[in-house]
Amino acid sequence: MQQETYGEVFLIDKPLEWTSFDVVKKVRNALRIKKVGHAGTLDPLATGLLIVCAGKQTKQIETYMGQEKEYSGTFVIGATTESFDLEKPVIPVSDPSHITLAHVTSAAAQLTGNILQVPPMHSAIKVDGKRVYESARKGIEVKMEARPVEVREFEITSFLGNEVGFRISCSKGTYIRSLARDLGEILGVGAYMSSLRRTRIGNFSVKDAHQLPELIESIKARTDENL
């Protein structure tokens, strides 16, 4: 492969419990080139569309990162966690049995549009040059400033017991875990994100994404042919 002229974009369905960097490392090793990066982190407990750029296409990463994202998943109400997902132990907050679909829909509407959002402490955002999750893991509290984001759509797709299904379209920098926290605060019973799947980035759909094992085998076979 001519590394000087090579450029490629991979749409990958990130497996559960893999970090985004794990995926990039796997693709990098298969391609046997250094210039590989992803266009927007997915947490280990999330699945779905990850755009990985290689070679000259790494110049397009910022463009892809700036595009609208779409997610589906579930929130659990009546409890929370330190990370607002299942990375940390569940902490009961309040009995949610009085909460109705109308309550949840109304809360979602309050979190739709141009809003100010405080990112979670367990995130990769840097404050004073340090990633805040590193401070969080040491028990150090870091003041997180609210940031403007746009939630274009916040649809409640199901509501059964204490589990809320959702579909969200949002701007770059929106944390779905923070929306779970804020939804729980509006409802007064707490909430955390129990599952998350990224289904779209701009015009790219997870339906067109490759499963990682098959993609790696394909890349390796192609790379070996070119050696």
What does this structure look like?
By secondary structure, the protein is of the alpha+beta class. It has two domains: 7-66 and 205-226, Pseudouridine synthase (2-Layer Sandwich); 69-201, Pseudouridine synthase (2-Layer Sandwich). The protein is 26% helix and 35% strand. The protein is built from six helices and 14 strands. The chain has helices spanning 20-31, 61-65, 101-110, 132-137, 176-187, 212-226; strands at residues 7-14, 36-38, 46-55, 69-77, 79-80, 91-92, 113-117, 126-127, 130-131, 147-160, 163-170, 191-201, 204-205, 210-211. Strands 1, 2, 3, 4, 7, 10, 11, 12, 13 and 14 form a ten-stranded mixed beta sheet that branches. Strand 12 (191-201) and strand 13 (204-205) form a beta hairpin. Helix 1 runs parallel beside helix 6. The chain is elongated, with a radius of gyration of 19 Å. The mean pLDDT is 91.
Furnish the topology, listing elements before pairings.
Elements (H helix, E strand, L loop, with lengths): L6 E8 L5 H12 L4 E3 L7 E10 L5 H5 L3 E9 L1 E2 L10 E2 L8 H10 L2 E5 L8 E2 L2 E2 H6 L9 E14 L2 E8 L5 H12 L3 E11 L2 E2 L4 E2 H15 L1
Parallel strand pairs: 1-14, 3-12
Antiparallel strand pairs: 1-3, 2-3, 4-11, 4-12, 5-6, 7-10, 8-9, 10-11, 12-13
CATH class of the largest domain: Alpha Beta
Taking pLDDT < 50 over at least 5 consecutive residues as the criterion, the unreliable ranges are: none
Query: How much of the residues is beta strand, in percent?
Result: 35-45%
Rg of Cα set:
19 Å
Structure summary, number of beta strands? 14
Helix content: 25-40%
CATH architecture of the largest domain: 2-Layer Sandwich
Mean pLDDT, all residues: 91
In angstroms, what separates the terminal alpha carbons?
A: 7 Å
Sheet with the most strands, sense and barrel status: 10 strands, mixed
The name CATH uses for the topology of the largest domain is Pseudouridine synthase
The coarse overall form would be: elongated
- The ordered string of helix (H) and strand (E) elements is EHEEHEEEHEEEHEEHEEEH
**What is the CATH superfamily label of the largest domain?**
Pseudouridine synthase
- Whole-number tally of structural domains: 2
Number of helices: 6
Structural category is alpha+beta
